[in-house]
Amino acid sequence: MQNTPNQSAMSLRPASDWALFLDVDGTLLHLQQTPDGVNRSERVCQILEGIMQRLAGAVALVSGRTIQNLDELFVPHRFPVAGLHGLERRDAEGNAHSHSESQVLDTLRPPLRKAAETHEGVIFEDKSRALAIHYRQAPDRASGIQRLVEDLVRPLAHELHVIHGKMVTEIKPWHADKGSAISAFMNEPPFVGRVPVFIGDDTTDEDGFVYVNQMSGYAIRVGGGEGDVVKTAARYSLENVDEVIAWLESWPPSL
Ligand SMILES: [Mg+2]
How far is CA 105 from the centre of its chain? Predict the structure, then answer.
């Protein structure tokens, strides 16, 4: 765990008071060539179940995947979860909360599907309330795809938000993000009154880091960006997925 010099002098709230929020891909599970190529780890599930017991259930996944996809990935475990970067959520009691589908995404589907069909290795993922286009298998297409998406979304920029992540560009409505999802959890039991701790590895996690900082919680970014030095609101860092798992396994961990 690395932190800025001033942070080490901060008085930290004990881990027993934390509420733990976790991104999935690149944080709990290693990134793979395609989203479907990711393998869940039973070890990760067992570690999370153990921490849930110690935090009175105050653990949630906060991911860009759909909740259905996350449930399939972690079957038979059903964690409290926010999917699609906060556009859908299942609270600790199992109640579903979701934002309505944005019709404005309809205009983007045909050109993005065509781009994926035209360029080998480019994958279009229709997540219903959000869209993603992946180019991990066609890295030379990255800038062209990013430009295409920016051009398509420009006239819709008041409604849609483009996020360039690790070898993926995501398009989602503005009205929810990982920060608003964590905030919603923090207003409900068993999260309410606890100190939010959020671990994530990518651009979409920054909204969550900002919220957690505002709540005097602890924001932890995994690794750096691919290429450039990463700009992040997170004040703590862990090197990679393996270090995240080891840190969680050492519960109660230190910052
Ligand atoms: Mg991630």
Answer: 21
